[in-house]
Design goal:
DUF982, DUF982 domain-containing protein, alpha+beta
């Protein structure tokens, strides 16, 4: 049962997938949902500082709480990736 005010963050509806091209253990990371944005930012991100990184984490949390659309969190992830030197590839679905 879904709680009021919290969206299903595993859902990928209306979320244009993207591929993060990272260095390290996981070279390519497919992101298709808010859950995967959160995992990328918290688990595999190369650096945990930077204004865009902090904004992306906060934006992802707001989207998980259904305060803003998932697409806003996706855009924040793209800005954080640019800040960290991570290439982003749009994936057709």
């Amino acid at each position: 049962m879904q709680r009021v005010g919290v969206m299903d963050w595993h859902r990928s509806d209306d979320f244009a997938p993207l591929m993060l091209v990272m260095s390290g253990h996981e070279k390519h990371r497919l992101v298709t949902s808010l859950r995967e944005i959160a995992e990328a930012l918290i688990v595999t991100w190369p650096t945990y500082d930077g204004e865009e990184y902090i904004a992306a984490v906060k934006t992802c949390l707001d989207a998980i709480q259904d305060k803003i659309p998932a697409q806003v969190a996706r855009a924040a992830l793209i800005r954080a990736a640019a800040e960290a030197g991570i290439s982003v590839i749009d994936v057709a679905h």
